[in-house]
Design goal:
Keywords: Isomerase, Signal. This protein is of the alpha/beta class and about 130 residues long. The chain is about 45% helix and about 20% strand. The protein has one domain: 3-Layer(aba) Sandwich (Glutaredoxin), CATH 3.40.30. A 5-stranded mixed β-sheet has the order 1-3-2-4-5, with helices on both faces. About 10% of the residues have low confidence.
C-alpha cells in the first residue's frame, strides 16, 4: 500500500512540473503537426528525448534557451519521446535518444547525437535559418 501511494504522489508531482515542451515553446510530436510544419518550409527542429536520459537532460536547457532567442523564433520545435514514439523515430531514421535534427525547406539539413554544448547546438540550429 505504501509503495502504491508513493507512485501516485510521484505521478501527481510530475504532472505539476512543466515539461520542456511547455517551457521552450516546443510541442509534443504528432505526425500531422510535424508534417504540416515541414510542408510549410520554415525551420523545424526535432529533439529525440527521454526523461531518464542524462544526455537529454543536459541538452534541454541549452535547446530551450536558444529557442527563446529571437534569432531562432521562426523555428517550429517538436519533442519526440524516445520511449513512446518509435514509429516517428523510424521515420526520422533516429534510433538514438539525445538526437537533435534540423530541417529547412522540408529537408533535413543537420543532425547531432549527444551534443550538450550550447554553442554546438546553436551552430546546429543556425543551419536551419
Amino acid at each position: 500500500m505504501r509503495n502504491r501511494r508513493q507512485i501516485l504522489l510521484a505521478a501527481a508531482a510530475a504532472a505539476l512540473i512543466p515539461s520542456l515542451a511547455d517551457a521552450a515553446g516546443m510541442q509534443r510530436y504528432a505526425n500531422v503537426n510535424f508534417e504540416a510544419a515541414l510542408a510549410a518550409g520554415g525551420p523545424v527542429v526535432a529533439h529525440i528525448d527521454a526523461d531518464w536520459c542524462p544526455t537529454c537532460r543536459a541538452q534541454r536547457p541549452a535547446l530551450a534557451k536558444l529557442l527563446e532567442d529571437g534569432r531562432f523564433a521562426a523555428f517550429r520545435a517538436f519533442l519526440v519521446d524516445y520511449d513512446t514514439e518509435k514509429k516517428a523515430m523510424r521515420a526520422l531514421n533516429a534510433p538514438d535518444r539525445s538526437t537533435i535534427i534540423v530541417f529547412k525547406g522540408g529537408r533535413e539539413v543537420a543532425r547531432s547525437v549527444g551534443a550538450t554544448d550550447k554553442a554546438a547546438i546553436e551552430a546546429l540550429l543556425a543551419k536551419g535559418l
